Give the backbone structure.
Amino acid sequence: MHPSFEPPERRFFGRRKGKAFSSRQQALMDTILPRISVKIPENAATDDVTPNLAHFHTGVTPLKQADIFGPALAKNIKQVWLEIGFGKGEHLAWQAQNNPDVGLIGCEPYLNGVVGLLAHIEANEIENIRIYGDDARHVIWALPDASVDRIFLIHPDPWPKKRHARRRFVNPPNLDDLARILKDGGEFRVGTDHPIYREWTAIQMAQRSDFAWLAEGPDDWRRRPDDWPETRYEIKAMEGKATYFRFKRLERA
């Protein structure tokens, strides 16, 4: 850990719920969510802020693909992708529809976002998404080493004030965990339009010896890749020009 870095706060996200659900939304939460929720070991779902690598290796039963997706679907899954904070679920739903042989895990503590994804799942009859409606770290801590092929962190809360910097998801302890669960050659994608988070991400990732930035020139981070769909947030609420970071997990020693 960097000597000047302080352990993260208990939460790197904001509020859990917005306006009240409509009867239709509540029905989605009651019927679809229980069927596709990720069930993690109770001893992984803590807000312990101690280093998470040690937390994983002290008794947490690792999740297997069959545990998450069910035995039948797990047989047909070629890769596992994880999205940390999926918002209203537009990006995750698009990836699921365009990659039917990929199993996607979406983590989102904001319950109004969860119900937004459930609406996409119902409308498009999506079968290859599983949801965890809480802190993504609980799932990350329970995943086995080298078990994920791609991780998305798209427009996370920038926590722009200096005193809140420790709440930004891109921080050394969390990056240690992502490096653990990513397969060699796996990809970590970070999208942000916030100048502070853009600089913060570049600095944090430059200090890593286990990730390489997949960029050879400015266009590689200024242009949205074809397989990176634009969301309503990007269209309506961006604070500035978006940056599309792509990092490769280097081979383990």
Observations:
- The chain has two domains: 17-74+101-143, 145-253.
- Residues 17-74+101-143 form one domain.
